[in-house]
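Bench log, entry 3. Co-assembly request; chain sequences pasted below exactly as received.
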Amino acid sequence: SAVISQKPSRDICQRGTSLTIQCQVDSQVTMMFWYRQQPGQSLTLIATANQGSEATYESGFVIDKFPISRPNLTFSTLTVSNMSPEDSSIYLCSGTDRSSYNEQFFGPGTRLTVL
Amino acid sequence: GENVEQHPSTLSVQEGDSAVIKCTYSDSASNYFPWYKQELGKGPQLIIDIRSNVGEKKDQRIAVTLNKTAKHFSLHITETQPEDSAVYFCAASNNNDMRFGAGTRLTVKP
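Structure output for the full assembly:
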C-alpha cells in the first residue's frame, strides 16, 4: 500500500488568510482525493485531483475557495483560501492506483483551526 | 448519488466479545466496499474490503459480508481487544467515487 504524508500536521490561522496543505505519496498514483472531516464526523469529498487536468469538485466546493494543484503523480496541494472559522476542520488526502483497483490510502490529515 | 447509512453510531462491548457494524447503500452500481479504522489524531486506515463478486471475506479476527440483493454489508470483529477501540467507517465505491458512512465509535472495555 502507498504511504502518504501531509504537511503541515496542524495549524492555527487567522481569518482572511490562506493555507496550503501538501500531500506527498511514496509511489505514483493515478488519482488523488481531498476530503474534509469535521470533528466527530464522517469524510466529505472536496475534489478529485488528476495529473494534467483540472480538479473535479464536488457540489458545495469551488475552485476559488479550494484551489488544487497536481503537478505530478506523487504530489498534490490543497489551498484553503480566505479562511473563516467555518473552515476549521481536518483535511485529508488520499491516493489510489488503477492496479490497486479502487483501494484508497489516506494521509494522517491536517488539523486546521481558524480564529 | 450514492448514500451510505451506518449503524450503530456507538458500540460498547466487553473484551473478548464480538462486534458487528452494519451498512446499507443505495447505488446498485457500487462494486467496492472498504472498511476503515480511524484512531484519534490519525487518518483512516484500510482494514478490510470486499468486492461485489464476493459474498464474504475474512482476515484473522475481522470478516466482512456483502448482500448485493439487499444492498447491505457488515463488519464482524471477533475476540475484541482494547486496541480495537476506534471509529470505524464503511464506504461504497463505484469507479473511485467513494462515499462514506457516518462512522461507528467502538469501545472495547477491558
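The radius of gyration of chain B is 13 Å. Chain B has a mean pLDDT of 95.
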